[in-house]
Amino acid sequence: MINDIRPVQASNLIVKFADDINLGIKVTDDSDASYMETNNIINWAEINRMKLNYKKTWEMVIRGKITRPLPAPLPMIVRKSWLKILGVTFQENPSMWDMHLVELMSKACSRMYIIRTCKYYGFSRKELDLLFHSLILSIIVFGIEVWGCASYSKYLSQVDKLLKRAYKYGYLMYQVSIVDILNNKDRDLWEKITTDPNHALQVLLPPSRQLELRNRGHEYELPRVRTERFKRVFVNRCLFNFI
């Protein structure tokens, strides 16, 4: 399918993945292009003889701790307080990952029963380690570059406790931590982005430095950080960790 759809305003973002479209719009007190951008998608679908599935079309307003009234909801589109996009559950407050962690931990704990049963029937520690990596660690690392910005004390520590318990019970051959896993996954993706000029995430990188003051791990400018939450997001996390 040809990706020929473009936002009406360049400041807005349209991401098309197969037959799914994600539309990101920055709403301020002075401007709200929601209606204009949604009508643009509707017209594009009609021109290309495609039918939009409104039962699978939702709106979510991403906001922090603000008292400003929310923009009016879009017609025919249900507004939700959370959305699951490519396996990661986002909530309207970008600092909250409760729903994603609850689902992740529920899956992990239910699969621990499988490994416990296998241990009862005499599986070796090496075999249990392979099972743990296949059944549990795989769902933990999925999308961790995105939700890894979550607070450690509130969210990531839950995963760490599960990993420590797995090692204690003999399900892992080596003790691992969520911080080490996150750093390794960050570095793998960071190297792919910075070494491939055609990578889709190249647009997220800041400009290169103009002055060469000293050798660094990368050539990009460091952003001004005002909050710890801003520093923890993937790109900024890599900019400061791999400097």
TrEMBL record:
UniProt superkingdom: Eukaryota
Protein name: Uncharacterized protein
Organism for this UniProt entry: Paramuricea clavata (Red gorgonian)
Lineage of origin: Eukaryota, Metazoa, Cnidaria, Anthozoa, Octocorallia
